[in-house]
Amino acid sequence: MTHNDWILDVLADLKSFASANGLGALAEQLDDTKLIAAAEIASQNEEACAILNGDHGQPGSDIGELGRHQRA
After folding, report:
1. Annotated region Disordered: where (predicted)?
2. Angle between helices 6-20 and 24-52 (to 10 degrees)
3. pTM of the predicted model, to two decimals?
4. What's the rounded Cα separation, in Å, for the pair 56 and 49?
């Protein structure tokens, strides 16, 4: 667990509250927001690992990042 994972718990709590209080559209939006947050956190973690491993900026080190910023 990273130091940014707490936000995923907060978003889950907000979604639960929204669902329990008849705020269906908000609950759906918070679900989408949680997915985006998880993807961004994972991306940051991958970049941090690459830097720690000395791979950042090396030739061929960005092969795994192809299409990373595409949105569905």
Report:
1. 52-72
2. 170
3. 0.63
4. 9
Contact 48, 64 (CB under 8 A): no
In tens, the pLDDT along 2-54 reads 688 899 999 999 999 999 999 999 999 999 999 999 999 999 888 777 777 77
Stated as kind and residue range, the H or E segment containing 37 is: helix 24-52
Alpha carbon distance 72, 64 (integer Å): 18
Contact 7, 37 (CB under 8 A): yes
- At 54, the amino acid letter reads G
pLDDT confidence of residue 69: 53
